[in-house]
Write a structure and sequence with these properties.
With about 240 residues, the chain is an alpha/beta fold. The chain has 13 helices and 5 strands. The chain has a single domain, classed as 3-Layer(aba) Sandwich (Rossmann fold). A 5-stranded parallel β-sheet has the order 2-1-3-4-5, with helices on both faces. About 15% of the residues have low confidence.
């Protein structure tokens, strides 16, 4: 009679069980009916890869999407990992200034030509989301020195939004008011470019320093979604 080797050698591995003269035939029958190949990934990851690739797992939903730590529970706003990296230092600045009273959430820097168009659109979207915005069209009264008003607005805002449009690209080389605003914003870690109807490549050709800052773009999502991200960024 063949004897089981388990008392001496153990059957902890499949190879040990298969080598046992008493159990090998039983084990081979078992293997034929059931085969297990462990995966290094959790089942939820594997299912997501089979249905669309690993990128859909980043952040939980959406292609390459992520949730920053300041995003509130239940928020439907999605970010790319690059946007989270870009906006994190700005958010930290917002939190540092949280205890400072009477600050506007956002200073909106824009070209004069955009004041009644896309700049007004972005301003209105932000205010509809509860964001307080310094906007020259409403915050500079008649007879008020413009540069002084801008300096005050910059000093009393947590975040600077630069609306980068073809009009702004034309204005920057002229070293006008928009260029002065940019210089002040670039000196602090509170700047978020919003590129609209142009590209970061075109921006780098005019202002390499500003172009080195990544931000948001309406080529990737509509302006209302850009506004929603800014609103979450400054919410305290």
């Amino acid at each position: 009679m063949t004897r089981c080797t388990a008392p001496v050698q153990g059957h902890r591995t499949a190879s040990a069980a298969a080598a046992c003269p008493a159990c090998s035939s039983r084990y081979s029958g078992y293997r034929s009916s059931y085969s297990y190949s462990p995966s290094p990934y959790p089942s939820s990851y594997s299912s997501s890869v089979s249905s669309g690739g690993a990128r859909s797992r980043v952040g939980g939903s959406g292609s390459g999407s992520a949730k920053p730590r300041w995003s509130r529970a239940g928020s439907s706003v999605l970010y790319t990992p690059a946007e989270v990296r870009t906006l994190t230092p700005v958010r930290e600045n917002v939190e540092k200034l949280a205890s400072v009273p009477d600050l506007r959430d956002v200073f909106l820097c824009h070209a004069w030509d955009d004041r009644q168009g896309v700049a007004r659109e972005l301003h209105d979207l932000l205010e509809s989301l509860g964001v307080s915005v310094w906007f020259s069209e409403k915050d500079v009264g008649l007879g008020t020195p413009l540069l002084r008003a801008i300096d005050k607005g910059l000093a009393n805002s947590r975040v600077g939004i630069v609306l980068v449009t073809p009009a702004l690209l034309r204005r920057i080389p002229q070293e006008g008011i928009a260029e002065k605003e940019l210089s002040a914003l670039l000196a602090r870690d509170q700047l978020v470019p919003v590129v609209h109807q142009t590209t970061y490549e075109a921006l780098r050709g005019v202002s390499p320093l500003l172009g080195s800052r990544s931000g948001l773009s309406t080529a990737e999502e509509p302006m209302k979604d850009v506004a929603a991200k800014i609103a979450e960024l400054v919410a305290l």
